[in-house]
Sequence to fold (561 residues):
Amino acid sequence: MNRRKFVKKTTLVAMTGIVGCDIVFGSVMPEGYQPLSLQDPDPFKLFDKDREMVVLNDKPWNMEAQAHLLDDKITPSKYMFIRNNGLIPEDIDVENWVLTVDGESVKQNKSYSLQDLKSKFRHHTYQLTLECGGNGRSEFNPPAKGNQWTIGAVSSAEWTGVRLKDILEDVGIKDDAVYLGYHAADLHLSRNPEKEPISRGVPIAKAMQDETLLAFTMNGEDIPLVHGHPLRLVAGGWPASASGKWINRLSIRNIVHNGAKMGGSSYRIPCDPVAPGEKVPDEDMCIIESMPVKSLITYPKSGAMVSEGKKLNIRGHAWAGELEVKKMEYSIDFGSTWKTCILEKPTNRLAWQHFSVNIDLPKKGYYEIWARATDSKGVSQPMLLPGWNPKGYLNNACHRIAVKVV
Amino acid sequence: MGNAHKTYRKRARRLYRILIVVSVLALITAIGAFYFYEDGNGPKGNPEYSDPLEAREVGQMEKSIDSVSGFIQAPGLQETITNCTTCHSAQLVTQNRMTKEGWLSTIRWMQKTQNLWDLGENEPIILEYLATNYAPEEKGRRENLEVVEWYVLEE
Fold:
């Protein structure tokens, strides 16, 4: 018996000890292979994400970016946040994937293969900003329940697909259509096949916008599995939960869609403002539609030390749900004075806009750079937390970074 | 085959057996030491994770964390692991801060909509555990910025 065989045998004995039973056919196990039960799932490898991304939850998988990771004008997949309500589908059969359109308000049910969708309808590409409704939840007081997103649950990638309105026109929908509800291939956490983890959607008017897509491509490649391969609804500017992943059925409803996570406090806020911590009955909650105006300083990373007398270059992105950002400002004195930044026009509607500015910092010491965007209706980001709501949605308070002049 | 060769093979076999026993013992000790070290030092089994949320929790509370589940070690831990980590991870619990009333309404919501079973006599134990160890803290309307690391910005 040579050394290698000896090592392999003793390792097997030890593994058997850990696994708690004999490893059948252990002797023919390939060298360097770890039994599945011993493998630590590495989410960064699993989802092809940068190692600076932050895991909030591993069942279901939820992961967010940090501000400085979102510096690209078009968000690459490795920096795109992951939000799941259920378990990622395990067997995607692209060849036999069928999209069914049904519901009270279709003239007749209709089904399409992926090939049908790709060949029958014109393709369109838009850069679309998707932000989780709960982005910023971690700051609410009293705390709101759910994944404690800080600032990184936002992305703006380039999506290619067919217009939802082209499909709805092909199917034929009745005049009483109110809402579009999606159904998808993901699994409920309880693994009960009768239950859907999430089945949300958008009002017909949003479904009929030019930019609302059924997408099969993200940043020029097949959509990654974790982001909805092979078919994703993309409704930019709205809570990202409206942009269902792994879509296999669309229901055209004559009522507001009542699927999973459409009721209660899910993706809903008090119709009228409430005091922090107040109890709100279900019937007084309203569905979130457009996301509010917001911005992020993506360069430099917070904690920068710069030499006295040097200008500080900052840049980032700003977005405003359905609206456009009209003005971008920064403050180095906690909001006492504001100066304007250079703000670019969006590539297309619902894409985030880029801003940049060169800043003079008058003397040595600690500074915070605060950023504030204003939308086309004149509404700005608040410096403090906006209105409290039971699930901690829509925190669009100004982003800030810390800087020292040394 | 000669006697000398047989004796040699017998000795070799004995030596081999001893070697196996020694290395298994060494491995068990090493694994034990690893877990012991883990208990004292951090909540995560995988040092490659950087999890600011958990770092913050440990810093604030100075409570010892169960290295396998990630929960705070306190009475009710076992009942909580058994009932609360079948469908979702412990992280969904440990990220959150709620009053007893808040935790109870979360349990009721899961029972109503998410297939959670009746917790029976474990319910008060779990509630007490959660409300004690994962209670809300006053954060105000905006917290101070926390700088993870100061660095020299070269341009």
